[in-house]
Amino acid sequence: MAACRNPQRIGEELFPPTPTRQDTLRIEGVRQVFLPPPSTKKAPFVFMGEAEDTFTGRWKAGWATSFALGGKDVKFFSQTLVAVDSVILELFIASAYGDFSVPMRVRVERLTQPLSNAQSYTTTATFSTDGQNLVLPGRDSLYFISLRPGGYRIPLDTNLGRSILTLPASALSGEEAFQQAFPGLYITAEPMVAGAKAAIYTIFPRSASTVLRIFYRERVQGQDAPQRYDFFVNDSCVWAYSLQRQSTNTLRDHLEQDTTLWAQQLLVAGGLPVGIQFEVSGWEALSRRPVLAARLIWFSDSVGDNSYSPFYPRPTSFVLYADTIEEAASAAWGFGDYTNASVIWELTQPIQEIALRRRLPPKHFYIWLSGRSYTLQRWLAAGLRSSHPPYLIVTSAEP
User: Fold this and answer.
1) Tens digits of residue pLDDT in 350-363
2) Could you tell me the pTM of the whole model?
């Protein structure tokens, strides 16, 4: 009855709070993992441009794609083609990495060889073109004061439109024949001032705003009739991009060549993916206890925190995988987010299953950026011997 003096403590003597304990599981065997060049064929996002990153070096990217005819036995005009008024390549630019306020010059060239469904295109792929820039003079600049996702229009030489509209009937019988006759385009962008720190743009190929449009006129019953035909990128198309890293004396290179650096700094980066592999020991401490909370806390390196800017933003999300370097949903342990100077993963449910012996402890864990092949962002993490080493803390209830 003494507890009645404080209404907030009524019943504590009859039902006392569950005693808890905290165990810190050890992080061991930390190492960098450098994946081979990934496949870019039919990637959901593609790159074009040039940018320079403090830790990963200078990047150069270009995108090659075929276009869909959109039907069988297509006829662009019934009687006479009068003129091609304009040809517009519109790209849906989803984001940019680097200084997008630096003016860049866009190049669009015709492919001379069709892209193959049977070939696996990696970031090291090269594409054959005729070397002729189709962008109209004075209309090739690409830069933004503030970047917003959306379509960007690039006017092209009208001769491209005429060559497509006047293809023989055999080339317009279906998608495969059309893409053999018109293999597609290769799109790149380079700084107008050589060596300038510009940007690499991310393009969404399957957007309705990524399209090749031809505006033309045909003669119908003695009068000119304006027409338009749109060529989209769909499942019948093949597209791929190249992404080459041109610097070889960056932190990324030093970490790859000198494993002693891993004790202090670790890199997680996209594009050509770099991740962290580690092990956890001390699972026996859980001993079938009910797990109330479990968190993996990994601190940032102070040097990395000073390198972010609006042009080189901090990554927004990290994914933790168990026992595989692949992006497998069944192996994902969840996403980590920034909290102050650290990334935190909430792992209560999988750790509870391990404590109850419903699953085996993983042999290895891997940390990657979310969408690791389609972003150039990076995170510099602290190593095991840094001033703030990572740890996995588990709060459990005493029996």
Assistant:
1) 999 999 999 999 99
2) 0.89
